[in-house]
């Protein structure tokens, strides 16, 4: 009986020290967690067959220590897998972000091209319909100077800088927006527009 008591004590100490479990507080809700589980029927059959050999205190302690080492190895492998899983998740998120950024960049480029093509088409349409704005006429003059031909070859009747005389602040801001659009549309005459 003294051997059993000391094995129980060692077992309780190992559970508490190595695993942090007590009979009163453990994640399994087991009030007899530190007690050794014995298959009584199995031992009875082995004893009846003459094969039963009770284990010594040293064997029991060695077996417990072996199990604790195994538990620590399993925990270590689980922690390593968790780290690997989080690294893989971070890599996947980085990859997804890169793909999203790349797609977003392409989308922005396409959107910018779409807006510039529309601005160019609006300018052409206003010129073809004879309702040009003064800056459209400047663009038309640059096109004529570059060899383009229009149905109506009318160009400005005064120098371009005189278009800005007597403009209100709102009109001047609108003209600046149009000029910045022409800077992006008309790369051939970029120096002029700047």
UniProtKB/TrEMBL annotation:
Q: GO CC terms on record?
A: cytoplasm; spliceosomal complex
UniProt-annotated stretches for the region Disordered:
54-100
Limits of the Splicing factor cactin central domain: 98-194
**Source domain of life:** Eukaryota
InterPro entries from the entry?
Cactin_central (IPR018816)
What ranges does the record list as Basic and acidic residues composition bias?
A: 55-100
Task: List membrane-spanning regions.
Answer: none
The protein's matches in PANTHER family, at most eight in alphabetical order, are given as: POLYGLUTAMINE BINDING PROTEIN 1/MARVEL MEMBRANE-ASSOCIATING DOMAIN CONTAINING 3 (PTHR21737), SPLICING FACTOR CACTIN (PTHR21737:SF4)
Protein name in the entry = Splicing factor cactin central domain-containing protein
